[in-house]
Amino acid sequence: MYELRGIGEQGDLLHMYFGRIGANTSFNASLALSALRMLDITKADLTSAPSFVVRSFETNRLIEFISGRKKRIDRFTAQRSRRAD
Length: 85
Hints:
Elements: E1 2-10, E2 13-20, E3 26-32, H1 33-38, H2 43-48, E4 52-56, E5 60-67, E6 72-79
Antiparallel strand pairs: 1-2, 2-3, 4-5, 5-6
C-alpha cells in the first residue's frame, strides 16, 4: 500500500511521488494529462484517494485506487524508470 506524497503538473505531464505506507520505499511516476483524461481520472481523484495498490512489473507499474467520485476501483499504468528503485 502506498500513499500519494506529492503531485505537480509540468506542461502536459502529471508528476506523482508515492511512498510506501509504513516503510522507507518510494517512487516517482509521470503520466500525460491527456492519458488521464482518456481514462476519466482527474487530479482530484488522485489527491482524494486514501491509498494506492501498486503492482510492479519489469517495464511498468499498475497503480490502483478507490475513486470516490466514480465509486469504484480505478487504475492506470505508469512506465518504470530505468534506475533501480
